[in-house]
Batch of 2 targets.
Target 1
Amino acid sequence: MSKLRAILTIVAALVLASFAAVLAGRYVGNKTRQNTHQVAVAKSTIELGTPLSADLVTMIDWPRESTPDGTFSTLTPLLAEPTTKAPRVVRTTILKGEPILELRLAPIGSLGGLAAVIAPGNRAITVRVNDVVGVGGFALPGSYVDVLVNTTQTSGSNTVLDESISKIVLNHILVLAAAEEISRDDSKPKVVNAVTLEVTPEQAERIDLARSVGTLSLVLRNPMDVGQSGSLGVDKRMLLGNGPWDRGKVAVPMPDSSEVTLPPPMPVAKAKPTRPAAERIEVIRGTTRGTQSVER
């Protein structure tokens, strides 16, 4: 009888423990659901210029406290925008698991492709390059470059001087595409024949003029370095060290020997003549004897 009672006690304890575990699980689940909500994230990496589709986006629970601004709680405004009924277009690359934010999307009504990723007010211009001009294939989409022009200087009367000059004409220019590809996740060099740059209208005019008067080259730079070069350009005399600038130092020209004016000689002080020492002689006057000085 006592053994049966012990077994019943153990069974009751197990039942109560299971019931308590279920209640605790439900409580924790409800509490967790209260602190999270549905957020649209990238199911896989989405390249810039890509229209969103159902196979690229999924909904997951996201903590409310750490939810960034501009997220989407449903898929409808992403896959079929209520006004245009067209999917939204990604303007920057979104990695797998990243929340899809409004600021990462092109304006409503934008079509897919390169035009959707151009910032408002900017333009896209294509520059023909080769393996050298294109920085050995490292001018990839998403990188930043400076634009150099190599041309021939002209005088004020538009007469061509026999002197070449190389100068940086644009700084910190974003590469939108290399050839026809706009993928930014490729870190390997790729030799292409054209690079598309994002510029302002004034910068587009400078590039168009620069490639008509000389040859262009690209200089790869650190994307975090946003400073201006400040260079005045280099010509052949400066390159060979014969010009007014040599390694950043001013070269002072030496004057011609015929034009050198020597300073007048310093006056020489004349030495004063020294007086000869006086000679003493003995003078005897009667019984008196003495000496007297006599000058020569």
Target 2
Amino acid sequence: MTNSMTNSQYVLVENDGHVRRIWLNRPDSANAQGQQLLEELDRAFADAGADDSVRVVILGGKGKHFSAGHDLKEAQRERGDFTVEQRHAFESKFYFDYCLRIWDFPKPTISQVQGACLAGAIMLANMCDLMVVSDDAYFSDAIASTLGLASMEVLFQPWVIGLRRSKELMFTGRKLTASEAVSMGMANVSVPRAELDAKAMEMAQQIAAAPPFAIQMLKRSLNRSLDVQGFRTALHAHFDAHQLTHVSEEFLRAKERGLDAVIARNKSNLKEEGQGNA
């Protein structure tokens, strides 16, 4: 039995036995990640972590698309004149730290992705332990080619899909299909859109049936296997490189041209690819 809980404006929370679903809920904006949504999402994960009845969390997005990434309209409107110090502080808190808290979340997590998963949304989805995608899902990180920035804030890709695939996708900005995401190891399984919710829940319930402390300790060990190879140090190093490109001439030229063109491009891609249930 699924039970709805008290929800925030942009995040919905549901319980199904020992599984908690956390939904991004800005479908009219393709679940663009503004500051309020990220704050609500961070609180929802904190609540799930503190609730002993929760053994597994599923992260999904309501509507046609998982998420179009960071809310560029809000960024342009509210943070367009930020200093280097202000931007570093904001992105450290809302993009880097919030993502790493999901990566370090003590309980198993599953992201379920449909439709578009763009830029910062790829980062968010990949902080989860497992990923289930619909066969119409696609991923794109065109930040370097469109904004002149060194990709996203959390550079997880080399650790997930390997160095050469990462370079190909980020240098070109091309779209990655659901089947490619599975074959490269980013996603675990691809299913038809109509089966996405059920598949994610099936996987979550199977994990929830296992001894929870053993699973939590296993997750900690698996994540530490990357840490001993330098995973966390590499993420911090890239975050600083990403911040540096915010003051490059290339980014400043893109900023002078305005983010409107990038926003329009994203909207066009969403309309062209956005099939499935509203």
